[in-house]
Amino acid sequence: MISFAKSRGTIILIVGHVTKDGQIAGPRVLEHMVDTVLYFEGERGHQYRILRSVKNRFGGTDEIGVFEMTGMGLAEVSNPSQLFLSDRSAEVAGSAVFAGIEGSRPVLVEIQALVASSSAANPRRAVVGWDSGRLAMVLAVLDARCGLGLSSSDIYLNVAGGLKVGEPAADLAVAAALVSSLSGVPVPAETVIFGEISLSGDVRPVTQAEARLKEAAKLGFSRALVPANTKAGGNNLKLNSCGRLQDLVSVFADGEMV
């Protein structure tokens, strides 16, 4: 097929399925032979579908296209951030808006968390749309550095809209949603959050901060909780710096996040 495509100058599309682990079924050599690998992702209960590039021999990877399932078929979504946040409720404890980057595109999504008391010996951990190992790390840092005692609680985490978030920049938004659920204090609806959490409890800067803030300002957000030394880039956003995870916890401990 490769010889045919090169001799005729045509494009060949090979459609396959993935395993339960999310990997392409069959010999992995097929991935190395082709020029581009595209994943068509989506949850059964959501109307959104995401076309994600995980390999591109002639361009950037991790680019996404967002589509909506309609009666006329798939329709392109020109502004995914607005779509993912369209059904978001007003200030509710356990919800935080994360300003992420998918490929070269800034995308805002809602991260929902629920902390519930548990009497089981092994509390439940349910994660949808994020890495469960990353959640375990954030919980461990919140326990060890901030003394929240989350290890004995059931934890439920969900990325709304069916999007799968993979970058560490979501750490701070996840932590904010968890602490918000635990304290009962909502994150202000006009606030976006991003930042990477280290094992020491420090909040580290992330890449493309200006693009994230620009997208947030375009959608009407007025403030951002960001790592220290992050610049607004003329987006007229009020920045609240967070150098350590304890700073985040202390804000919610006061009973109101301002």
UniProtKB/TrEMBL annotation:
Listed SUPFAM superfamilies: P-loop containing nucleoside triphosphate hydrolases, Ribosomal protein S5 domain 2-like
GO BP terms in the entry: recombinational repair
GO CC terms of this entry: cytosol
Organism of provenance: Iodidimonas gelatinilytica
Protein name: DNA repair protein RadA
Top-rank lineage group of the source organism: Bacteria
InterPro entries: P-loop_NTPase (IPR027417), Ribosomal_Su5_D2-typ_SF (IPR020568), Ribsml_uS5_D2-typ_fold_subgr (IPR014721)
